[in-house]
Amino acid sequence: MSELPPDLPRLRTLETWLQLTLDQVRQAIAVAEQQEAQQQRAVPPPPPDWVVQLGIGRDAHPVAVHVGGCGTAGRRARPVSREQAVRALTEGIEACGLCRPDTELGIL
């Protein structure tokens, strides 16, 4: 570090400047921490393991079973457990031809 000034007025001025700079750094840190926390909250949860695609209408019935995250499931997909997916497939609900949940579940 460079040599400090010898007189009290310049030392006080330097102290004030350092305090103001430290306050600015602490404020920038707080903003950065807040932004990082918001980004972490914005991370979407992982897709469910299995979903059932529902048909159109008020009393929509299941029309297909998909592996979670399958893009063809659409907006009307609802998460289901492994057991519910197996039951739906064995009861005649169609398996998606793209993600092949029947193969993933061991049902052929």
Show the helix and strand layout.
Blueprint lengths: L7 H34 L8 E5 L7 E6 L9 E4 L1 H9 L3 E2 L5 H5 L3
Parallel strand pairs: 2-4
Antiparallel strand pairs: 1-2, 1-3
Report on this structure:
The structure is a single chain. This protein is an alpha+beta fold. It folds into 2 domains: 1-43; 50-105, no CATH class. Helices cover 44% and strands 16% of the residues. It contains 3 helices and 4 strands. It has helices at residues 8-41, 82-90, 101-105; strands spanning 50-54, 62-67, 77-80, 94-95. It has a 4-stranded mixed sheet with strand order 3-1-2-4. A hairpin with a 7-residue loop joins strand 1 and strand 2. The chain is rod-shaped, with a radius of gyration of 30 Å. 16% of the residues are buried. The mean pLDDT is 92.
